[in-house]
């Protein structure tokens, strides 16, 4: 195939994977909408994450989606199961098409290269790794409830990437023509993907905490669950079907604990080594370098506070989101607000 044919294939694959991601989003929304007919007292008991126990009393963190659907009948159970399977299957297919888009982009260059030559390609790769990380962790941490958010996020990012960031295929700049590109970028995008998922869970934590606080204030004292006498559910809708606050907080910490050493390797080890190879200096006070270090400091503070002071809950979620804001500002914002960055290609 010619370079032009590979570039065309890449562009078509981007469009195709965008359609698949959108269909996966619709399937997940259908899955959750199917549970709207379940009585609230039962619907609030959807599985809440890895490690949910099984107890005779069936507390709010011990029910699976299948058990909840059972309470509403065979038709609902079938729709919920079908929506979940369809959403995951479409996400897997979309990730495959996404990978083809990256592969075609790299093979379209002369000579063939890794698909990390400009902001369009970096964004295409970053969104792919968000999906890949979600799929890898899906079964281990029972992240099916995160499907609508991940697919919606990736669809949005791809739209922005195609409409505003697209650039034709071109050879790598001299600074990028190094094997350190692969080492540095792979570690950076893996960390970015995990931090992004951690940001999603932090947002959900804050939303669910607020919803529970408001709902508890509206529930009369002594109101009980008509099924087993437990306290009446305080959260409705989608938030009732995500992990409880303890589960969300624990999952957020695990994602950040994984991502931080990977980000450290990318920012404080491979980045300076590559900078010295390309520009003869380990540190250049470039805006991208400075903001990458700021991101490292914020996440270091987050993990240090959690490890030493029991820093959990709402304050921890807010600090995690501050870290995510610095991360994405460094990734995209610097390109629009700085004219002096030597990393303007990324």
From TrEMBL:
<protein>
    <submittedName>
        <fullName>C-type cytochrome biogenesis protein CcsB</fullName>
    </submittedName>
</protein>
<feature type="domain" description="Cytochrome c assembly protein">
    <location>
        <begin position="116"/>
        <end position="337"/>
    </location>
</feature>
<feature type="transmembrane region" description="Helical">
    <location>
        <begin position="12"/>
        <end position="30"/>
    </location>
</feature>
<feature type="transmembrane region" description="Helical">
    <location>
        <begin position="145"/>
        <end position="166"/>
    </location>
</feature>
<dbReference type="InterPro" id="IPR045062">
    <property type="entry name" value="Cyt_c_biogenesis_CcsA/CcmC"/>
</dbReference>
<dbReference type="GO" id="GO:0017004">
    <property type="term" value="P:cytochrome complex assembly"/>
</dbReference>
<dbReference type="InterPro" id="IPR002541">
    <property type="entry name" value="Cyt_c_assembly"/>
</dbReference>
<feature type="transmembrane region" description="Helical">
    <location>
        <begin position="255"/>
        <end position="275"/>
    </location>
</feature>
<feature type="transmembrane region" description="Helical">
    <location>
        <begin position="290"/>
        <end position="309"/>
    </location>
</feature>
<keyword id="KW-0472">Membrane</keyword>
<feature type="transmembrane region" description="Helical">
    <location>
        <begin position="178"/>
        <end position="207"/>
    </location>
</feature>
<feature type="transmembrane region" description="Helical">
    <location>
        <begin position="119"/>
        <end position="138"/>
    </location>
</feature>
<keyword id="KW-0812">Transmembrane</keyword>
<dbReference type="Pfam" id="PF01578">
    <property type="entry name" value="Cytochrom_C_asm"/>
</dbReference>
<dbReference type="GO" id="GO:0020037">
    <property type="term" value="F:heme binding"/>
</dbReference>
<keyword id="KW-1133">Transmembrane helix</keyword>
<feature type="transmembrane region" description="Helical">
    <location>
        <begin position="316"/>
        <end position="337"/>
    </location>
</feature>
<dbReference type="InterPro" id="IPR017562">
    <property type="entry name" value="Cyt_c_biogenesis_CcsA"/>
</dbReference>
<feature type="transmembrane region" description="Helical">
    <location>
        <begin position="86"/>
        <end position="107"/>
    </location>
</feature>
<dbReference type="GO" id="GO:0005886">
    <property type="term" value="C:plasma membrane"/>
</dbReference>
<keyword id="KW-0201">Cytochrome c-type biogenesis</keyword>
């Amino acid at each position: 195939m010619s370079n032009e044919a590979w570039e065309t294939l890449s562009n078509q694959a981007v469009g195709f994977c965008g359609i698949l991601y959108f269909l996966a989003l619709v399937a997940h929304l259908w899955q959750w909408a199917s549970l709207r007919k379940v009585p609230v007292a039962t619907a609030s008991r959807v599985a809440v994450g890895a490690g949910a126990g099984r107890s005779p009393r069936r507390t709010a963190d011990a029910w699976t989606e299948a058990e909840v659907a059972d309470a509403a009948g065979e038709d609902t159970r079938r729709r919920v199961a079908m929506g979940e399977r369809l959403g995951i299957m479409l996400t897997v297919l979309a990730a495959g098409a996404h990978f083809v888009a990256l592969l075609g982009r790299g093979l379209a260059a002369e000579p063939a290269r890794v698909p990390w030559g400009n902001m369009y390609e970096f964004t295409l790769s970053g969104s792919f790794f968000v999906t890949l990380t979600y799929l890898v962790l899906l079964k281990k941490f029972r992240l099916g409830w995160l499907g609508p958010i991940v697919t919606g996020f990736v669809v949005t990012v791809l739209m922005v990437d195609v409409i505003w960031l697209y650039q034709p295929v071109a050879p790598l700049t001299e600074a990028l023509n190094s094997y350190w590109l692969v080492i540095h970028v792979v570690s950076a995008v893996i960390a970015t993907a995990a931090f992004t998922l951690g940001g999603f869970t932090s947002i959900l934590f804050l939303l669910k905490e607020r919803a529970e606080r408001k709902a508890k204030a509206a529930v009369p004292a002594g109101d009980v669950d008509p099924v087993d006498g437990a306290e009446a559910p305080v959260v409705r809708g989608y938030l009732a079907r995500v992990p409880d606050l303890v589960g969300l907080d624990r999952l957020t910490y695990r994602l950040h604990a994984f991502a931080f050493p990977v980000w450290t390797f990318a920012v404080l080890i491979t980045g300076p080594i590559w900078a010295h190879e390309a520009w003869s200096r380990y540190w250049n006070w470039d805006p991208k370098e400075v903001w990458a270090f700021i991101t490292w400091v914020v996440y270091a503070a987050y993990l240090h506070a959690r490890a030493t002071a029991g820093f959990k809950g709402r304050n921890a979620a807010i600090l995690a989101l501050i870290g995510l804001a610095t991360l994405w500002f460094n990734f995209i914002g610097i390109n629009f607000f700085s004219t002096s960055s030597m990393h303007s290609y990324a």
